[in-house]
Amino acid sequence: MAHAAPGTFVLDETMPTGMVMPTFGAQAYQSQVIGALETGNLAGRLRWINQAAGTIDNLRMFGGDGRLLPALISGVYSVPRKGGGLKSCWPYRHGQIVVKFPRATTPYPQTLRIGYIWGSAPGFLVVQFGDSAQRIYFKPGLHSAYLRVAAAVRAFAIDGQKAKYLCVGVVAAGHLVPY
Question: pTM of the entire structure?
Fold first, then answer.
C-alpha cells in the first residue's frame, strides 16, 4: 500500500478462502481486512470500488501473492488499427464510432474497458453494446472508461455528435484480473 499513489482505485474482492472464511460476509472483503491497515501515512490512500464503472485511471487489484497490481482484462481485445498516431483511432462515421473484435465476446456479464483520448469538454456519450445502451461520462485527456456489459457481440458503437472529438484506441471485454 505504501507504493500506491494517493487516490488509487482498487477493485474490492473477497479475501482468499485460505485466509478468511466466506461465512464472514462483508467482513471477508479486502477493503475490510486490508483497509484496516490504512493508518497513519497510509490512511485514505486507496479508494475501494465494488465494480469498475466510469472513467477510472490506473485501476488496481490485489494479486494472489498480496501485491497491489494493475488490473487487466482477460478476454477479447479490439482489432488493432493500422498506422500510428490518429490513424490508430477507430474512425468516426455517421455520428458514431464502431469498434470491432476479432471474435465474439462472451454473452455473460463482463467488463468493457475503453482506452481513449478525449479532446473536448467533459461530457456523456452512449455506448451501444448488444441490445443495451448506456451513457458514459468522458473526461478530457488520456483515460480508461469501464462499463458492465452482457452480450455476445463482434462490434459495438459509441454514439453522439461529440464522438468526433474522441480517439478510441485499445478496447477489451472480459473479466478483470491482476497483472
Answer: 0.85
